[in-house]
């Protein structure tokens, strides 16, 4: 009996150790994040958007340079399973659209012939993942019909294809600009908060001067001085630098306040007593403890960069033709006459809204998951 009692006692003592004590802070945060349904929805949407960005070439029914001069401002085509004669089809099909009024750009379905939607069809060549040569597209139809699921723009280009390719600019700009902004803001704010005094005053005044400039007007000014003859790639990287320049100052103030509360903690005093130099203390001991703040700021700062690029491209100072981004695609809807006749030109704006909302949902969930006071169970 004594042996059985001792065995039960040992099992009871071991159970709490294996159940909860082995969880790391990251595991606890992930457990909390999974309970945040809105954040998980936002994360799932972002996974879908970035997957579409990576596989834009095979997903797009046409190439980026495809143009149909006859079918400009073509409305979104409808997928049919039931024909005009009432017969069913297991495979979706479309009808060819013919121009009814060339002046108003109105189209009508020609129901005399069906064009089945084909999957894994050969099309314009591309490089899958920028490396593997391929020419297979997910779907397509035979001519003269077109499968313009989101319609076409004023040049007869498939809007879905342009949106998929434009996501590479709009979504990557947010990531790259944040990757530049965060290290600069961390080091700058860490130095200001660690040394304090005159160093802090001078460095923060410089940051405040940058913060006082209105963000959009500063973007317009800096972008306007860019050379007009630069290529799309060069302009892409210059816009990233512009967005990073106006974003690091505000972030450095947040890091500075966080460092002020950390520099008198025991682990910092121990590092000083061990003879470590100031730069090593800042980089290896203080800044890693700001990781939760960095993650939250990054998840909430990326949509700001997306909106910044979209604003620049919308007014013609960002990504320009023939390159594609959600901002310059949306600029075609700025004409009220075109917009009233072709409301599908607003689809790029829908993708911008979805991406920004998804990032904000995910950022709110990460913020709550990293806050120990909001953790449950």
Key descriptive features of the protein:
377 residues, alpha+beta, 2 domains, MetI-like fold, two-stranded antiparallel ribbon
Helix-strand pattern: HHHHEEEEEHHHHHHHHHH
Q: Quick one: CATH superfamily of the largest domain?
A: MetI-like
State the separation between the terminal residues, measured CA to CA: 36 Å
The tally of structural domains comes to: 2
Helical element count?
A: 14
Classify the beta-strand content into a percent band: 5-15%
CATH class wording of the largest domain = Mainly Alpha
Regions with pLDDT < 50 over 5+ consecutive residues?
A: 7-20
Q: What level of helicity do the residues show?
A: 55-70%
CATH topology of the largest domain: MetI-like fold
Number of DSSP strand runs: 5
> What is the strand arrangement across the widest sheet?
1-2-3
Structural class comes to alpha+beta
Rg of Cα set: 27 Å
Q: What is the typical, i.e. mean, pLDDT?
A: 84
Largest sheet: 3 strands, antiparallel
Dominant shape: elongated
CATH architecture of the largest domain: Orthogonal Bundle
Could you please describe the fold and organization of this structure?
With 377 residues, this protein is of the alpha+beta class. The protein is built from 14 helices and 5 strands. The strands form 2 sheets. The chain has a 3-stranded antiparallel sheet with strand order 1-2-3, with no helix packed on it. A two-stranded antiparallel sheet has the order 4-5. Helix 2 crosses helix 14 and helix 5 packs across helix 10. The longest helix is centred in the middle third of the chain and has 37 residues. The radius of gyration is 27 Å and the shape is elongated. The two termini are 36 Å apart.
């Amino acid at each position: 009996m004594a042996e059985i009692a001792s065995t039960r006692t040992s099992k009871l003592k071991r159970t709490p150790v294996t159940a909860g004590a082995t969880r790391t802070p990251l595991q606890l945060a992930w457990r909390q994040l999974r309970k945040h349904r809105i954040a998980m929805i936002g994360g799932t949407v972002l996974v879908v958007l970035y997957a579409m960005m990576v596989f834009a070439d095979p997903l797009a029914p046409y190439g980026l340079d495809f143009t149909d001069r006859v079918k400009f401002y073509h409305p979104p085509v409808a997928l049919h399973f039931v024909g005009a004669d009432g017969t069913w089809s297991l495979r979706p099909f479309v009808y060819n659209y013919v121009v009814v009024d060339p002046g108003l750009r109105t189209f009508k379905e020609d129901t005399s012939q069906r064009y089945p939607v084909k999957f894994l069809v050969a099309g314009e060549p591309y490089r899958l993942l920028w490396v593997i040569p391929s020419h297979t597209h997910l779907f397509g139809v035979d001519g003269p019909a077109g499968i313009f699921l989101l319609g076409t723009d004023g040049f007869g280009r498939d809007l879905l294809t342009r949106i998929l390719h434009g996501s590479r600019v709009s979504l990557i700009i947010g990531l790259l600009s944040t990757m530049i902004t965060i290290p600069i803001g961390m080091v700058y704010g860490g130095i200001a908060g660690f040394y304090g005094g005159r160093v802090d005053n001078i460095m923060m005044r410089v940051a405040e001067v940058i913060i006082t400039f209105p963000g959009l007007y500063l973007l317009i000014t800096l972008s306007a001085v860019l050379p007009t003859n630069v290529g799309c790639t060069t302009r892409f990287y210059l816009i990233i630098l512009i967005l990073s320049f106006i974003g690091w100052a505000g972030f450095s103030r947040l890091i500075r306040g966080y460092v002020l509360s950390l520099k008198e903690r025991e682990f910092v005093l121990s590092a000083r007593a061990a003879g470590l130099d100031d730069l090593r203390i800042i980089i290896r001991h203080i800044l890693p403890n700001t990781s939760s703040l960095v993650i939250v700021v990054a998840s909430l700062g990326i949509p700001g960069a997306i909106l910044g690029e979209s604003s620049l491209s919308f007014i013609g100072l960002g990504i320009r033709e023939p390159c594609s981004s959600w901002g310059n695609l949306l600029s075609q809807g700025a004409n009220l006459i075109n917009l009233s006749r072709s409301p599908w030109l607003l689809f790029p704006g829908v993708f911008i809204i979805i991406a920004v909302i998804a990032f904000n949902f995910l950022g709110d969930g990460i913020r709550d998951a990293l806050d120990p006071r909001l953790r449950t169970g």
